[in-house]
Specification:
By secondary structure, the chain is of the alpha+beta class. The longest helix is centred in the last third of the chain and has 11 residues, at about 95-105. It has 4 helices and 7 strands; from the N terminus they run αββββαββααβ.
Length: about 130
Amino acid sequence: MHTKLIKFNQTKVGKILIGDNILLLETIGRKSNKIRKTPLTYVQIDDGYLVAASYGGRDKTPDWFYNIDNQNVRVFVNKEYQNVKPSVVKTDDKEKYWSLLTAVYPTFNLYRSKTDRDIPLVKLITEQV
């Protein structure tokens, strides 16, 4: 019996499983030096995209968050790759940005309630080429 593997490489499967507003974050692993691709729920902001390092409400911060220090970060969204510069949202601005994310994906409220960890929010600022 042959089983066909579905590669979760962009929004087609993401839309079925989670909904719209899924991007693919591409980073270089800080230890492995390999390309790492992570599907994330996002909200569009003026200068790019906003994502949460929620990891489903786990007490551990996801590995991709530590990989964004690398200079080679890009996203695949709306059928194209874009280079981005990550910027962690400051504590004073977090509630404003959380409201944007929970409007798109209310399950973020559940994730926040499951952990005592301060979940980082990250702006992925689109680089002008």
